[in-house]
């Protein structure tokens, strides 16, 4: 039965494909990895068609049970209600929540600090930091019951202060701080919380290269391993592993999946 399988909520999980048909967005790649591993999948996002395309593909390719819930966290609306709707629909269909992956993030990357507008700053903070905050709070009672796991997404852009990414970096460092506090407070409940800072070849990275070539040249470099990560095989599989029973002792950690670029002291 469906409710005997583990269930994960993945924000920003709509389908985006590269020209070769491979996952072209990290959220969708993560959904593919969890579907392959036999989890029930709940995906959210602002683009309904991308969600429906993802649902159809995941069900066909992996025989997965998939719930898609259009949801967007933005300035000027009742965001707690939006998130609670996702949680309520998840419980109605799958009964329990075992994992939460906060991957959704929009930003005006490539815009210099002094040119960033309040609207652009709010876009990054609401879609990333506020979304992570609301989803973690709403999912907490259910993750406490299942002793579940959370994977949140930071960025090397924030760790290393990449030019042109001030609002994005602010959101990502806020997410890291939030995650570390939750890791400390929720450890007693059996919930582990970790952060991934990824580098993968995506449609978004392609667009960044086209729209902001100077910022791209400054910030994006070929990793020492000789290739850019794959959203499913390199990032998604890591998320699945982080939610396995064998890594419950790991919590509050920032993991750079950047093929050797993210080395830190």
From TrEMBL:
This is Short-chain dehydrogenase. It comes from Dubosiella newyorkensis. InterPro entries: NAD(P)-bd_dom_sf, Sc_DH/Rdtase_CS, SDR_fam. CDD domains: SDR_c. GO terms for molecular function: oxidoreductase activity, acting on the CH-OH group of donors, NAD or NADP as acceptor. Pfam families: adh_short_C2 (PF13561). It comes from the Bacteria. Belongs to the short-chain dehydrogenases/reductases (SDR) family. Coiled coil: none annotated. The lineage of its organism: Bacteria, Bacillati, Bacillota, Erysipelotrichia, Erysipelotrichales.
């Amino acid at each position: 039965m469906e409710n005997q399988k583990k269930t994960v909520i993945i924000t920003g999980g709509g389908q985006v494909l590269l020209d070769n048909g491979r996952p072209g967005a990290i959220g969708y790649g993560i959904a593919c990895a969890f579907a392959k591993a036999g989890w029930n999948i709940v995906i959210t996002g602002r683009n309904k068609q991308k969600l429906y395309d993802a649902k159809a593909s995941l069900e066909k390719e992996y025989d997965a049970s998939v719930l898609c819930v259009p949801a967007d966290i933005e300035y000027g609306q009742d965001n707690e209600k939006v998130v609670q709707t996702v949680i309520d629909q998840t419980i109605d269909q799958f009964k329990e929540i075992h994992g939460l992956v906060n991957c959704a993030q929009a930003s005006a990357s490539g815009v210099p600090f002094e040119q960033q507008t309040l609207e652009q700053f709010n876009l990054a903070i609401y879609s990333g930091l506020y979304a992570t905050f609301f989803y973690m709070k709403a999912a907490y009672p259910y993750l406490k019951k299942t002793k579940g796991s959370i994977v949140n997404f930071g960025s090397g852009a924030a760790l290393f202060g990449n030019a042109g990414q001030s609002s994005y970096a602010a959101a990502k460092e806020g997410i890291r701080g939030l995650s570390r506090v939750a890791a400390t407070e929720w450890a007693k409940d059996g919930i582990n919380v970790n952060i991934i800072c990824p580098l993968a070849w995506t449609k978004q990275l392609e667009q960044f290269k086209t729209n902001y070539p100077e910022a791209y040249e400054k910030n994006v470099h070929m990793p020492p391993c000789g290739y850019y990560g794959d959203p499913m095989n390199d990032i998604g599989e890591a998320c699945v592993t982080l939610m396995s029973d064998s890594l419950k002792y790991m919590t509050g950690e920032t993991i750079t999946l950047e093929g050797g670029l993210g080395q830190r002291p």
